[in-house]
Amino acid sequence: MAAPVTLLRTQVGIVGGGPAGLMLGHLLHLHRIDSVILERRPEDHVVERVRAGVLEQGTVDLLASTGAGDRLQREGMRHGGIYVAFEQARHRIDMAGLTGGRVITIYGQNEVVRDLIDARRASGAPLRFEVSDLTLHDVDSDRPNIRFVEQGQEFALACDWIAGCDGFHGPCRTAIPAAKLRTFERIYPFAWLGILAEAAPTSEELVYSLHERGFALFSMRSPAITRLYLQVPPDEDVAAWPDERIWSELQIRLRTSDGWRPKEGAIVQKGITGMRSFVAEPMRFGRLFLAGDAAHIVPPTGAKGLNLAMADVARLARGFERFYGDGQTDLLDTYSERGLRRVWRAQRFSWWMTSMLHRIPGDAPFDHRRQIAELDYLVSSSAAMTSLSENYTGIPFE
Ligand code: APR
Ligand code: PHB
Hints:
There is one protein chain. The protein is of the alpha/beta class. The chain is about 35% helix and about 30% strand. The chain has 12 helices and 21 strands. The protein has an 8-stranded mixed sheet. Strands 9-3-2-13-20-19 form a 6-stranded mixed sheet. The longest helix is centred in the last third of the chain and has 23 residues, at about 335-355. The protein is globular and about 70 Å long. The chain binds adenosine-5-diphosphoribose (APR) and P-hydroxybenzoic acid. P-hydroxybenzoic acid binds next to loops.
C-alpha cells in the first residue's frame, strides 16, 4: 500500500535555495507572507559552491535594508573603479567619479547565501534541503501545487503561487509548455578557468585584461584571498592545468610594463565554467514565476548574474506584497515585461564586455586589432567609460 502523501499549504512555494530563492523567502517573511523554500542539495553544498562576487549598489542596499547585510557591510570590499588592461598597460576607469558616486562591493556569492540561510533560520520559516523528485502541478490553475520527496516521505505542497528559483537546470522552466515559451541563446567558444589563491591582492581593484593569448581577470575575496580567471577552450579539462601552469599563464596575461603583477600563493580551489547567454520569455506562466538563472544566464564578464537574480526577486516580492496587501495583481501582471527589459540590457552589456575582452578562436588579425582599438577608445573617452560604469555599477532597482 502506497505511503500516504503529507499535505502542506503555503502562500508562495519557492523551488531552489540559491541566492534568488533565499532572498525571495527573506523578503516575503518581512511582509508576513508565508513561503516554503525547497532545495535539492545539502546545505553545505549550497553554501560552499564558489561563484562570482561583485555586488551592485542595488543588491547591497537590498541586503542591508532588509537586515541581511551586517557581515557584508563589515567584510565587503567597496570599489569605486576597475582597471582594463591591454598591451601590457593598466587603465583605471573611475566608475564612482563618472556615475555620481556609484560603487561595487566585492563579497563572495556564497557568503551572501550563507547570510540568507542564517536569516531564514532566524525567522523560523521553512527551508527544506535535500528534497528530491520535485514536480510542479496545475501551474496555470488557481490551485498550483508542488510534489516532492524528503527522507522517503512524499509531500504535496498547495500554494497560491510558485516561484521558480531553481537555476538553469531546474524543473520550473520546463513546466511551461514549449508552445508558450521562447528562448534565446548564445554559447561562447571559450570557458573560464577560475581559482581561489591564498595570496594578498596586489591591486586594490579588479583588472580585466585582454592579452593576445586570451582573457584574464584579477579579482579578490579578502585582504588574504585573490580570485583569478583565465580564458580556456570550452571543453578544457581542469586536470590539464597544474598550479605552475596556471600561474605562469596568469603572469604572462596580466603583468604590465609598470611592473604590476599578481602575487602567487597556494591555490585552494579551481574549476572551469562554460560561457553562455540565455533568455527565456515570458518569465511567468499562470501562477508560476521564473527568477534568476531559471529565466536567464549571462556570461560572467559583466558581473551581472547574481545582481539580475536579486533585481528579479525584489520586483517579484513587491508584486506579492501588493497582491496580499491590496488584492491587486498589477505588479505581478507586469513582472515579466518589466523584468525582461532589465534582463536584455544586462545581456547586451555582458555580451559586449565578453566580445571586447576575449580572443575568439580562429579570429583574423584584423579582429584582434579592432578589439585593441575598441579598448583604446574606451579608456580615452569619458563618454565610453561613463557608459561602462553605468552598466557595471548597475541601474537602480525599480
Ligand atoms: N528541486 C529543488 N531545488 C533545485 C532543483 C530541484 N529539482 N533543481 C535545482 N535546484 C536548486 C539548485 O540546487 C540551486 O541551489 O536551485 C538552486 C538554484 O540556484 P542558482 O543556480 O544559484 O540560481 P539563482 O538562485 O537564480 O542565482 C543566480 O547564481 O549561478 C549564479 O551566476 C549566477 O550569480 C547567479 C546566481
Ligand atoms: C569574481 O570576483 O568572482 C568576479 C569578478 C568579476 C567578474 C566575474 C567574477 O566579472
